[in-house]
# Entry
Amino acid sequence: MKRNLSILIMVLLVLATVAGSTIAKETIVVVTPSNGAPGAERVKRIFESKFDATIEIVTQAYNLTHEKIVTAAASGSAGYDVIPADTVYIPSYVEAGFLTPLDSYIPKDYLNDITAGSLKEMTYKGKIYALGGGTANKYLFYNTQILRKAGFNAPPKTWEELINMSQVIQRKGLAKYGIAWGWSQGEGLMCDYNIFLRLFKGDYKLGDKWVVNTKEAVEALQFMADTIYKYKIADPASTSLDDREVLNSFLKGDIPFVLGWPFGWVWAKDPTKSRVVDSVEIALVPGLKKTGVVSASTSGASGLAILSSSKNKALAWEYIRIATSPEVQKYNMQLEHNQNISLKSVYDDPELLAKFPELKVMRKQTEYSFPRPRVAWYPQFSETLRVEIHKALTGIAKPKQALDEAQKKIDVLARQFDRHR
Amino acid sequence: MKVSIFKPRTDSRRWYTALDWDKVNGKLFPYYLLAPSLIIIFGLTIYPIFYSFGVSLLNYNLLIPGKSFAGLGNYMRLFMDSEFWASLGRTLYFAMVSIAVQITLGMIVALVLDQRFVGRGWTRAIVLLPWGVPTIVNGILWKWIYQPNYGALNGLLYQLGFIKQYMQWLSDPWLAMHMIIIADTWKVLGFYVVLFLASLQSIPSDIYESARVDGASPIRQFIHITLPMLRPTFLLILVMRTLETFRVFDIIYALTQGGPANGTKVIGYMAYEETFRFLDFGRGAAVSIVITLLVAAFSLLYIRMFFDRDVQFS
# Structure
């Protein structure tokens, strides 16, 4: 009797296990920065209505996504399938073997619809590793109300104009400062330096050699410091704010200008976050009269990629396909002004163009987009350069001295990494 | 007590029947009891340390294909790197200044709370509260307090007339380091107070009475009775806090991320940066091993001091 009962229990257990494994749905784990969470939830609902699988969303502060992905991918055991891949990190992820190429998954008509800028940023060594990274750039946000009160009807076209307008606004007591920068020692600083380097016609390479202490680079850095110390139009607190915190002053209506990313635009149009919903406008990043450069911006697209350790690559691809579809991109724009658009058909959509005139500015800005160096050792490159730039901006070193120091360190890094290429 | 855990059946054909199993089990019994803890300690502490040491001997950078044996190469490069020595210097400065400030303040607060006054219980509880706040939360809290435009510190000092314009608390490397020390002190002060208070209460009151009878002033009583009697507590605090300050990471991560201009980049932050930002696991492991060795050296030094003093006291 006892033996029979044990056999019965064992049979039931085996049956339960088998039944459980067939009933249990497959799960795709998607990592998303916190500002992308509402969008990811919407995609999850569409996905789960179409497929017999579930989506688990792991939300992460944007600035921590790199660490999160690196630790997960390096251990190979975190179980993430879809991750956000920022354009500057794609080379290092690929070199470390973290990402799966998407070329074989992408249908031809979809491929043809991707904007050239987006495709370039999501591609490394001839293969596409992420999709949906819109041609995200930094734009000039300005407060029309403050400008009107100061007697200006149009945004500045050059930095010389912006400095002049800021000084007028400050003199009239309409704002304490004209602009604030997100120039703490983070990546945001590098993005702004990149803009000024381009405005002064500089670059990171001379031939094959990495050169960061060129005459143009020193001029660009000097100009950045001058906005705080010479022209006194930039909030001196800039050197301790990151590119998210800096938006606080603008969204409160305390300053007339700020350089912002597309997520900043979403915030600016959100009445729960912004007091300038009706007075915020977007314009091209000003050019520089001195050099004749019309505009310059840093591209910071972040697309969706599949980790090579993913066990459900086909389903992970289906998630990406939905998340980057024209319908979802259009819906995100309509719902929350989310400009993360990577498809020509969405940019050209007459309904969207009529409702969101800023799309034209955005598209125009992509023409002046200047990428940061796309090398696997970019995190080191950026960190080294940023620390020295920060020294110049906080007055610890002169721009030339800071960039000469950066050059020495970058020479060492370049020798270390380039000999393995 | 007779213990027999692994006592095999008697079998003359087997070698182990010759052993006196009762005796063997009696000697091994403590080890059976310790085994689960030893396995956990080995798995979670000893093994990772050795594994980390192994990694530190490799050229192991995720951005460079393959791994190779580097010997002490990672350590050599580290010791030749001025940034490493600067980070180590900042760590030592952080450790020394924060411990000195915290011991002084902790002692003063404990002496006040040792007196009888109305609401003493409440005050003691309030002093302890910040200690319960997770360090990362404390970091974010202070980041808001130090916020240059809307932060509470600027608001308070400006309204009280101490400053004429808002200060950038985290823009200057030197100032930022001290602001981190203040934020850290706010959190850990309760820990010092509890330890000092417990020790103060254990000092027999008749010693003070005798001193008073002999005409000793309160200051002389403090110098000749209180301070010597608190010596073991000082040493305990020194050991624990030195270890903690050498490993400091989260409050720096939350407040400054090593900036401005690397002014608050301590050695713990360097280990994190090398490993998780630059993906150089070999070098990151080497930094971690250096931290481990430093902490171990300080611990040994303190433990020696601690036990010597203990013998004198007994």
Notes: Chain B is about 70% helix and 0% strand. The two ends of chain B are 34 Å apart (CA to CA). Residues 15-56 of chain B form one domain. Chain B touches chain A at residues 62-65, 147-150, 166, 168-173, 256-262, 273, 276-279, 281 (CB under 8 Å).
